[in-house]
Amino acid sequence: MRALTYFVGITIDGFIAAPDGDVGFFPMLDDIIGFMAQDYPETIPTHLREQFAVDGANKHFDTVIQGRSTYEPALAAGITSPYAHLRQYVVSRTLDASSDPAVEVITDPLAKVRQLKAEDSTLGVWLAGGGKLAGALLPEIDELVIKQYPVVAGRGTPMFDTDFEPTAFELADRKGYPSGATVSRFRRC
């Protein structure tokens, strides 16, 4: 069975975006970009892969699922298929369909994730965000990869926007970087 991994960047105080959904306040740290390009190359958008010297091989994921707010910045930039090297699903109740045949709009993320996890593949499914979608998919999340940036936001979009639902994960790995950022990997207990 394939795993669902929530690979996300957060502030020290646990936010993944500003109150308006903007992520531009996160610093572009060379060591974290290097980590992503080397260890999780599929998380680099297709149009930036050459710039960040990504070799093109997917190491962990062949599929990405994201909320509309996560997908929206790409659309605003005229990019309809931000992860063309992956199967792409966007969860939305307001988008009827994607203008790009490589992106499928879905309304039932839990059913889709269960279907994707049941597929026979050595690569997993990447949950790219946002907080409400992560909250809805918490019962199916197998792994967390958290890039924590040395920034306090004060308020914004939480990593999980859901009811009180304690869910145990165990630390599998943590690495600190010279920039002050850390990357932690947790597995569901």
Could you please describe the fold and organization of this structure?
- Pfam families: RibD_C.
- One of its GO terms (molecular function) is 5-amino-6-(5-phosphoribosylamino)uracil reductase activity.
- This is Deaminase.
- It comes from Rhodococcus oxybenzonivorans.
- With 189 residues, the chain is of the alpha/beta class.
- It has one domain: Dihydrofolate Reductase, subunit A.
- The longest helix has 10 residues.
- The protein is globular, with a radius of gyration of 16 Å.
- The model has no long low-confidence stretch (mean pLDDT 96).
Secondary-structure blueprint:
Elements: E1 4-10, E2 15-17, H1 30-39, E3 61-67, H2 68-76, E4 87-91, E5 103-106, H3 109-118, E6 124-129, H4 131-137, E7 143-148, E8 157-158, E9 169-176, E10 182-188
Parallel strand pairs: 1-6, 1-7, 3-4, 3-6, 4-5
Antiparallel strand pairs: 2-8, 7-10, 9-10
Domain Bacterial bifunctional deaminase-reductase C-terminal: 4-163
GO molecular function, one term: 5-amino-6-(5-phosphoribosylamino)uracil reductase activity
InterPro entries: DHFR-like_dom_sf, RibDG_C, Riboflavin_Biosynth_HTPR
